[in-house]
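By way of example, we now present a protein record of this kind:
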Amino acid sequence: MSLTELFPAIKMLPRADKLRLMQFLVIDLAQEEGVPLLTADAEYPIWTPLHAFEAADTLLQMLKAHEVEK
């Protein structure tokens, strides 16, 4: 079946099925490309600015430099 033959059938799908189709295609493409996917049983680090004192200092220096330029 060609892609042009699939389009009308896809158009008739309910929204939830279209989303599932998109998810299936993304996962399939990622696996073909060897891209690691997120899994439900794994932990992933998330960066937070909570204790990023060095970043805050850098931002402060940039703001001060910008004020001087004006």
